[in-house]
Design goal:
Elements: H1 4-8, E1 12-15, E2 23-27, H2 36-39, H3 46-56, H4 61-71, E3 77-81, H5 126-155, E4 158-166, H6 175-178, E5 186-189, H7 197-207, E6 213-215, E7 235-243, H8 251-268
Parallel strand pairs: 2-3, 2-4, 4-7, 5-6
Antiparallel strand pairs: 1-3, 5-7
Helix pairs in contact: 4-8, 7-8
This protein binds zinc ion.
Length: 280
């Protein structure tokens, strides 16, 4: 569990990549940090909250991204969320009207009201929801959008690799959207406009070594900041969802998966000029 000093740390970190790299690895769900004032409004005991964090946190995806960055020929840029998705989920639409996961029986819009098992996580309180959106969601979305904009200005194209993981066994909340869908070792989420086929193919080729790969099963779609969504196709994006049992058994497995992600970066940045300040 997080300590109070963690909760005082920055809400997200950017790890600089090689100026020649077009890749941004986004890690939205790796943190277990829930600041005290947010914790107070969560209707779970400490033990229940710890359990919920185990189920919902994309454990070690930040480590995988950092290790991949060390292993790749040209360092990708990293944007890592340092707050739990139980604070706000940066990948959901902030307005519940737009967000299918915000439906009352699921209760997982940008501010979750229900647990993975459908229990109460927070009271239905619009004022508190707005407060969390203002304090956490908006600054995060703004910073990530500006960061992508900056990379676009620098290089003319950005490829977001949206890195997640998911449990081997289906959680009850998932049943509302994709009951009994297959659960491959690697699920590749795509968007019809922002994911060119060769991008999904590259992910598939690299992660085939992990086991079965599938596109948009069980989870569909990938993250694109709203400012660019549907309009600026220089922003390419693909979601990589790793089934957790493929890397959670031992540290060696994390290194193996990180090696695959590094290879993906190498393939996607192949032929890019290495610039001063980058490694070689
Ligand atoms: Zn995730």
């Amino acid at each position: 569990m997080s300590t109070s000093s963690d909760a005082n740390g920055p809400p997200f970190v950017v790890v600089d990549g090689d100026p020649g790299s077009r890749i941004v690895i986004h890690v939205p769900h790796a943190s277990t940090i829930v600041p005290g004032r947010v914790r107070q409004r969560i209707e779970l005991s400490d033990e229940e909250l710890a359990q919920e964090l185990v189920l919902m946190t994309d454990a070690a995806t930040d480590r995988i991204a950092r290790e991949a960055s060390d292993l790749s020929e040209m360092r990708p840029w990293l944007f890592i969320n340092q707050r739990s998705r139980l604070v706000v989920d940066p990948e959901r639409f902030p307005d519940p009207v737009d967000e299918v996961m915000a439906a009352p029986d699921i209760g997982m819009g940008a501010v979750y009201e229900r647990t993975a098992h459908g229990g109460e996580l927070r009271e239905d309180d619009a004022a508190h929801r707005d407060e969390l959106i203002t304090a956490f969601f908006d600054p995060y979305a703004g910073a990530l959008t500006d960061f992508v904009e900056g990379r676009l200005e620098a290089d003319g194209q950005v490829t977001i690799v949206d890195l997640h993981s998911y449990p081997a066994a289906e959680l009850p909340y998932e049943r509302h959207v994709h009951a009994d869908a297959p659960r491959p070792a690697c699920c590749i989420g795509t968007d019809e406009r922002h994911t060119p086929p060769e991008l999904a193919d590259a992910v598939q080729a690299v992660f085939r070594g992990l086991g079965e790969t599938m596109v948009n099963q069980p989870f569909a779609g990938t993250y694109v900041p709203l400012r660019f969504y549907g309009t600026d196709l220089r922003v390419r994006s693909v979601m990589v969802e790793l089934r957790r049992d493929t890397y959670q058994e031992s540290p060696t497995d994390v290194a193996r998966v990180a090696g695959m992600l590094a290879r993906l970066c190498d393939v996607l940045d192949a032929g890019r000029p290495s610039t001063p300040g980058g490694r070689d």
